[in-house]
Amino acid sequence: MQVLSTKAEFREYLENVRALGRTVGLVPTMGALHEGHLSLLRAAGADCDVVALTIFVNPLQFGAGEDLSAYPRPLDRDLELAEEAGADVVFTPTTDEMYPEPTLSTVHIEQLTAGMEGASRPTHFDGVTTVVAKLFNIAGPSRAYFGEKDFQQLAVVRRMAADLDQPITVIGCPIVRESDGLAMSSRNIYLSSAEREAATVINRALRAGAAMISAGEGDPAVIEEHMASIIEAEPLAELDYAVVVDPDLLITPAALISGTNVRLLMVAKVGSPRLLDNLGVDVP
Ligand code: AMP
Fold first, then answer.
1. Residues annotated catalytic, as ranges
2. How far is 154 from 36, CA to CA, in rounded Å?
3. Residue 56 DSSP code
4. Which fold does the domain 186-282 belong to in CATH?
């Protein structure tokens, strides 16, 4: 496995791969790898000849007062896990390498970024789309793997690639969970043991919302209220949002339509970290 830290080396490595007629699977991450990230590497390995992992804690997507400096950076362990999961090349740039000049150009996606994470973290998505566009430009034509864990991010990146004709196929991969249902996250290490236990309420609330839909409830407001009430009953959890949305447009329909699919998205703070989770549901 090659570990490269300059844009020029990474670009050249992948250009050589493609010159040999091989395909590239790109997996952008911020490191602190867990099974969720490794599942993306394995999916890329199943589809593509060469798996390229990027590890970069992107300052542009952190707001003031967020955990940029505290964000875990266990690089040696990440490299071991990446190699085991089939990465062929890892790009680990410094912030100066990625942003040698103050950033005067950013990528902004309208509408899809307005609500949910965009409402709670106003500068977040411009930071994400700007760094992902840079990584796409450096890596060149590839298939890029993103987790459904960050469902809004996946929709935003997919739309960016389509709108800007980037030579990238964006692939969404299912959420990997702990055995008790908690979605894996690099931020779960911030949880105390009591908070870790309380955090399971998020997935339970989503499943309760899904059960209501399966039982015939068609009013999104009723489902959202029910999910919120489950979070509110857990003293260690503080709800940010619980919503029922169309999976492509990310807006709440007036009423659920039989035969469609909706996504339940939820964010709650448990202790210091904000925990994200979501679930797709077929409307009967
Ligand atoms: P991050 O390092 O948090 O920026 O995440 C990098 C990528 O891994 C993103 O595409 C995430 O959606 C994905 N990811 C993070 N956690 C999970 C998970 N539990 N299951 C599946 N994908 C995940």
1. 37
2. 14
3. -
4. Pantoate--beta-alanine Ligase; Chain: A,domain 2 (3.30.1300)
Residue 149 CA to ligand 1 centre (angstroms): 6
pLDDT in tens, 77-132: 999 999 999 999 999 999 999 999 999 999 999 999 999 999 999 999 999 999 99
- CB-based contact 275:267 (threshold 8 Å): yes
pLDDT, tens digit, 9 for 90 and up, residues 231-242? 999 999 999 999
Say which CATH topology domain 2-173 has.
Rossmann fold (3.40.50)
CA neighbor of 169 nearest in space, from 23, 16, 15:
23
What is the separation, in whole angstroms, between the first and last Cα of the chain?
Answer: 47
In degrees and rounded to multiples of 5, residue 183 shows phi and psi of -65, 135
Q: How far is the CA of 116 from the centre of ligand 1 (A)?
A: 18
Locate the domains of the chain by residue range: 2-173, 186-282
How would you label 257-283 residue by residue, b for 16+ Cβ within 10 Å and e otherwise? eeeeebbbbbbbebbebbbbbbbebeb
